[in-house]
Specification:
CATH topology of the largest domain: Alpha-Beta Plaits
Order of helices and strands: HHEEEEHEEEHHHEHHEEHEHEHEE
GO molecular function: diguanylate cyclase activity
Distance between the termini: 61 Å
GO cellular component, one term: plasma membrane
Organism: Glaciecola nitratireducens (strain JCM 12485 / KCTC 12276 / FR1064)
Radius of gyration: 22 Å
CATH architecture of the largest domain: 2-Layer Sandwich
Oligomer: single chain
Low-confidence stretches: 70-80, 188-201, 348-356
Cofactor: Mg(2+)
Number of domains: 2
Structural class: alpha+beta
EC number: 2.7.7.65
Shape: elongated
């Protein structure tokens, strides 16, 4: 390939990467693009979630010599791969590329960090080949810098400024995607490829949406002021992200003191346990100045509804029942309908209004 042709390929590749506003498709496009530029190396993209006392590493996309790109979503926190994890820790701590020679398999592994606007590592690209790639480092880092800048721009438009959670607009898009393709994991929307065995196993899982409301939040604002109210919102958001750490767990700020969580689990019982665990953890926490804060939760399975509004209306009905019957509880919409204590939600959409 001539230098001019390669330059054109690189420009075209960058144009493709920055054509997606969907974060999942963007991740897959990045891996596909880098593999096409370096077809002799396997490429793997990992997300890095840094918490106060731990680091969670997820394999989210890969492409190798089988020429198949997959959104794989493997949790490396639960795998004992000491050498690999050590390299990740070095990259995360230094913010610079690191290299590892696997003499047993005659492989060379390069690890390239992806930094956010605050110079924190939020992703790592692992490139594995049988030859050293040191001379290619400037090109790798340049492409990843473009990717990072674009992700930062997306975050500004898709995330709530106060809590850092995804906003309401991205929630509506996600629910519609799930309704169109109900058997795919939350973080996976196949763009190019077949799925691996782990993802096929996930197709039997159920997706649940919960609406969470902070109890007596207006009273907190009135008694302690809006600065403390904002602090409570941030702390509750942090509880949610700490309680729901799997790659498929998605947390949104829906508006005001309301939040939404999407999870993939095997059953309603598992969903109930997960949401109850969050409720109890918040209830047992001593919040600065305010003391005890509680939340009410209503949830419903996403399955066969006609719109995102219908899903949210169902969970909201369960939430309303929880608040009307004492607050600080978790209620499942379908169970309430079967008990006859909540009427089924029907949404009539018109050009002017949505009626519940």
């Amino acid at each position: 390939m001539s230098k001019n042709n390669r330059k054109v390929d690189i420009v075209d590749s960058l144009a493709e990467i920055t054509s997606y506003q969907n974060r999942d498709l963007l991740e897959q496009s990045l891996v596909k693009t880098i593999y096409e530029l370096f077809p002799s190396a396997d490429q793997r993209l990992f997300s890095i979630d840094q918490h106060e006392d731990s680091i969670t590493i997820h394999l989210i996309s890969k492409m190798g010599n089988d020429n198949q790109l997959s959104a794989v979503h493997v949790d490396y926190e639960n795998r004992q791969k000491a050498a690999l994890r050590l390299m990740f820790e070095k990259v995360i701590n230094s913010g610079k590329a690191e290299y590892f020679e696997n003499s047993d398999e005659s492989l060379f592994e390069s690890f390239y960090p992806v930094l956010d606007a605050n110079n924190r590592v939020f992703a790592v690209l692992q490139s594995t080949s049988r030859v050293k790639q040191l001379k290619e480092e400037p090109l790798f880092t340049g492409i990843l810098k473009v990717y990072s800048n674009y992700v930062n721009l997306l975050d500004k438009s898709q995330k709530d400024k106060l809590t850092g959670l995804f906003n309401r607009e991205t929630l509506d898009q996600k629910i519609l995607t799930i309704l169109r393709e109900p058997h795919k994991p939350l973080k996976q929307e196949a763009l190019f490829s077949s799925l691996n065995k782990e993802n096929r196993n996930k197709q039997s899982m159920k997706t649940f949406l919960a609406v969470i409301d902070i109890d007596h939040f207006k009273s907190i604002n009135d008694r302690f002021g809006h600065l403390y109210g904002d602090e409570i919102l941030v702390l509750v958001a942090q509880f949610m992200t700490k309680n729901f750490t799997r790659i498929d767990d998605l947390v949104y700020r829906y508006g005001g003191e309301e939040f939404v969580i999407l999870i993939n689990v095997d059953s309603n019982q598992q969903a109930q346990q997960a949401f109850e665990r969050l409720r109890i953890n918040i209830e047992n926490h001593e919040f600065p100045q305010v003391g005890q804060v509680t939340v009410s939760i209503g949830y419903e399975e996403i399955l066969g509804q006609s719109s995102s509004q219908e899903v949210i209306a169902a969970a909201d009905s369960a939430l309303y029942y929880a608040k009307q019957t004492g607050r600080n509880k978790t209620e499942y919409y379908q169970a309430l309908v079967e008990q006859g204590v909540v009427k089924p939600s029907h949404i009539i959409e018109s050009e002017d209004a949505i009626l519940f």
